[in-house]
Amino acid sequence: MKQISDALLATFFPASCQLCGQLVETKASGIVCQKCWNDYLPFQLSKSCQKCGYPFLSLEIGNLPPKDCAYCRNTLFSLARSCGAYEGAMRASVLELKTSPYLSEKLFELIKNTLTQSNILEKVDLIIPIPLHQERLAKRSFNQAELIAEKISDFASIPLDNSSLARIKPTLKHRIGMDKIDRSNSLKGAFQVMRPRLIANQVILLVDDVFTTGSTISAATSELIRAKAKEIRIFTLARIV
C-alpha cells in the first residue's frame, strides 16, 4: 500500500529531480530520482579511517584502513561516522533539509545502514543534536540536526537530549574558502552545557547534518568533555571530502 501511495503521489503531483530534471518516481526518494540515487555511493567502512570514517578510496583489497588519520588524530571525539560524501544526491537532499523539515525515507535508509554497519551506537546513553542559535532557529523555525537526531533516537530507542547543549553565541555563516583556523576562531565560546549533571559520565552521540572541517563538532565536543562527558561520538548525514 505504501508503494502504491507513493506511486500515486508521483503521478498526480509530479516533481522533477533536483539533479537531472527527470521525474522523481516516489516520495520516498525525496527530491532526487532513483537513477541519481543509484549513482551515489555510500562510504565503505572497510576503506575508511576506523576512528573518523574519512574515506580512503585508494586502499586496495587486503590493506587495513588506519586506526586514525591526519583528519582526526588530535580530536576529542572517539568515533565518527557519515553516510557518504557531500555531493550529488546527498548534497541536494541536505540542502533541501535545511529549508524543509522532512527527512525522506531514502535518507533514513542510509542512516540506518550506516548505524547498523558500525558499532557507533553501542552503549550510547544520550543523543544530542548540534544546536542552532536562537536567532537562526527563529528564522528557520526548525533545526535540521534535531530532525536527524530524533529519527536516530526513535530507531535506536536511545534518549534524545535537545536542551543540555546550547549555542549561546551567534556565529557568522561559514563561507566557502574559510579555513579550519578561521572557522575555529568564529566558534570560540559559541556553545555551553546548560545541564552538566545530565552530561557527566554519559556516552553521547553528537549529531549534525554535514561534517565540514570539524570545527563546529570540535567546539561542541570540547564543551561536553568540559562537562565531564565520558565519551563523545559523532554522526553526520554527509561529509565534505
Structure characterization notes:
With 241 residues, the protein is of the alpha/beta class. It folds into 2 domains: 1-39, no CATH class; 42-239, Rossmann fold, CATH 3.40.50.2020. Helices cover 34% and strands 15% of the residues. Helix 9 (215-226) links the parallel strand 5 and strand 6. It starts with a helix and ends with a strand. The relative contact order is 0.15. The model has no long low-confidence stretch (mean pLDDT 88).
Q: What's the main sheet like?
A: 4 strands, parallel
Structure classification: alpha/beta
Mean pLDDT: 88
Q: Strand order across the biggest sheet?
A: 1-6-5-2
Helix and strand element order: HHEHHEHHEHEHEHE
Short structural summary:
With 241 residues, the chain is of the alpha/beta class. It has helices spanning 2-12, 34-38, 88-97, 105-116, 134-140, 144-156, 180-186, 196-199, 215-226; strands spanning 79-85, 126-129, 165-167, 191-193, 203-211, 231-239.
Q: Keyphrases for this structure?
A:
241 residues; 2 domains; two-stranded antiparallel ribbon; 9 helices; 34% helix; 15% strand
List the helices and strands and how they pair.
Blueprint lengths: L1 H11 L21 H5 L40 E7 L2 H10 L7 H12 L9 E4 L4 H7 L3 H13 L8 E3 L12 H7 L4 E3 L2 H4 L3 E9 L3 H12 L4 E9 L2
Parallel strand pairs: 1-6, 2-5, 5-6
Antiparallel strand pairs: 3-4
